[in-house]
Amino acid sequence: MAPLLQKLSFLLRTSSSSSHLLRSLLLSTATASKKPQNPYAPESHFMVDYLVSSIGLSRDQAIKASKGLAHLRSPDRPDAVVGFLKRTGLSDAHIKSLISWHPKLLCANTEKTLERRAKELEEGGFSGPLLVQVVRSNPFAFTINGVLQRLQFWKEFVGGDNTVFSKVVRRNRMLINYDIERKVVPNITLLRNYGLSDKDITLVMMRVNGFILRSPISIKHLLKQTEDLGFSPESKMFVQALSVVAMIKSTTLQKKIELFKSFGWSKDEVHKAFRKCPNVLSLAEENVRLKMDFLLGKAGCLPVYIKERPMLLAYSLEKRLVPRHHVMSILKEKGIGKYFSFYSVVGLPEKNFVEKFIRRNEKGMPGLDKVYAAACAGVPGFPTTKDQNIPAVLASMDLMQENFWKDFLRNSGQAIWSQSQFLCF
């Protein structure tokens, strides 16, 4: 900067015509060089370093969070708040999450606000792990008015079950921020009049974030959409279907219908499949395509077989469909399990499948349990729907008894991973 100032000074002395312009430039340059850093700028406030070192936020998160803490002049109050939260039972990870969401909690008066509210909640029946769950779900529980009455309402509404209550407040983090009479009661009345029990409403709330906090008009629309898909309010599947419909946009719902129609399904067949398994509505497009490719190709299922059993699409491709198909292909080559339908096999609970098809055959087929475990775990190199290179697998995974598999491969080639001719009935 000094050489630049010297040159400007020289020009001022030698050029009268440019005197005014250069003098202005010199003044502004000198002023800029002496301008001190703003000690109150968010990125320079001491709370930025505090949030990074004591709370665990990233620097970018800390700069953003510190904007509401600029009036603090020492870490005394934040230290007191953090100490209180730890005594309440919250871990460092919990505290980090709370402060990320509600940084101004660090400004609260521990004695007059936090401890007083905690005592009120504990005396009202929310203590220990339950208090921790409430605060984890919403840090405003310590600072907004009317919290105890709202918590008591919801605990009674779900039947007094602490586990269910915890799931509801965890799924609906803003639940305690809303007035019960003005925001919640109209929606509960609407749903009850439609035929839903309080247990039904609770189930939807556990699945869908903010469902009960929507406008009555929005909830009426969701109820109608669910009925239009062929679900009767008296049906046991209505609540499950309503939950799925409430999680996706109307435009997305229509796209899902078009997706299944692209596989040759009629609109009636799509609706019929949804009525059997509403959860297929919530599957991502790529997820559906991968499963359909596998079921129609590798597993050898006919289109009508899948239409009649849409639950197949709800199972995990990597954790259930592919691993069990591999195992049954191996058993089939030995003449075992050839009369089991694919649907009955993948529908078995894990414990039952392992006992019926792995344990019973491990003596005659050593290593089968490890093959299945490797497939379920997604071990690198294990055959997938796009990889049938068994010799490479044998070389990379010391999971099977070498002599057995050499003999097996010699007798059947690579047919053990070929399309399975499962009976579809």
UniProtKB/TrEMBL annotation:
Keywords: Transcription, Transcription regulation, Transcription termination, Transit peptide. It comes from the Eukaryota. Pfam families: mTERF. The keyword Transcription regulation applies. Belongs to the mTERF family. It comes from Ananas comosus var. bracteatus. Transmembrane segments: none annotated. InterPro entries: MTERF (IPR003690), MTERF_sf (IPR038538). One of its GO terms (biological process) is DNA-templated transcription termination. One of its GO terms (molecular function) is nucleic acid binding. This is Uncharacterized protein.
